[in-house]
Amino acid sequence: MNNPLRRGLLALLFAACACGGxxxxxxxxxxxxxxxxxxxxxxxxxGKATVLVFADRVRGTSLAQKVAGLDVLRxxxxxxxxxxxxxxxxxxxxxxxxxxxxxxxxxxxxxPEARVRAAIDVIVAKSKxxxxxxxxxxxxxxxxxxxGERVVVAMATxxxxxxxxxxxxxxxxxxxxxxxxxxxxxxxxxxATAVEPSTTLRAPRVPAIPKTIGAGRAVVTVAKxxxxxxxxxxxxxxxxxxxxxxxxxxxxxxxxxxxxxxILTMRVMAPIAFRAEADHVKADVHLAxxxxxxxxxxxxxxxx
Length: 304
Hints:
The protein contains ten helices and 14 strands. By secondary structure, it is α+β, with helices and mostly antiparallel strands. It folds into two domains: 31-175, no CATH class; 190-302, no CATH class. It has a twelve-stranded antiparallel β-sheet, sandwiched between helices.
C-alpha cells in the first residue's frame, strides 16, 4: 500500500543513513505504527470488495442520520452503549465478495479500554449460543454469535476493534502493531473498492457490471445540501471497450433504480450517465437528500 506515512518514515531512514545517523536520541519519540489495518484485513481473507468510512467526517450531518437508518452495526453494538455515529471514528469492512467468503470488520475509536471491555461483555452476554472471552488470541478477544454467525470480537489495539471469523481467532494479533486505517487523501467521507466487480459485487438489486471491468473505486463526499457526491472510476480493458462498458453501466444502473409496480414505472433517482475516458469508465453523481431517502428505503426493502 502506497501509504504517505510509510513514505515519510522511509525518507527519514534514508536521511539518517546519509548523515551517519545511529541510535536516536533518548528523548526521541517512538516511531508511529503504520496505518496498515486495511491491508492486513484484505490479505487475511483475500478481500476483493472493501469499504472504508471516515465516520468522523459525517458525524452530526444529515447524511450520517440517513445512513444510520440502515442499522448496519446495530446487530453487533445494540445494547453496548457504543453509538456508531458518536463513538466510531473510522469503519472498514472487506470480503472476497458481497455474497460469500470470510469477512473482516474493523472499528477505529477513541474510547477508554474499560468501556470497550464492558461493551464486549454485553455482546458476550446477549450471544446465543453463549459467548465467552477466550485465551490464545494474543490480544483480548471473545467468541460470540451475531445474527447466527460465530465470530471473534478482538481488542487488537487500544483504539482498534476487529471482528473476524471464529476460525481466524489467532489472526487477531496481526493487528496488534497497526496504527489503524489510512488517513483520507482529500475530502472523502467514504471509499469503496472492488476487484473483478462483475462477480464480487453480484447481489440482488445490484446493477450488473460488465466482466471487462477489472476494478473500480467510488469516492463519497458530503454535499452541502445534506446529500452526497459520488465519483466513480473503473478500469476497463481498453478505450474501445470502455465506451461499450460505459453504455452498459448506464443501462444497468437505470434498470436497477427503476421500480415497476403493476402498470406503473417509478424511477428512484435521476439517470446516471457513465462516460469513457481512455480505458476508464467514470461517473460523477450527486444524490440529494430525497434521493438518499429513496435509495435507503429500496436497500432496506431488498436487504436479507
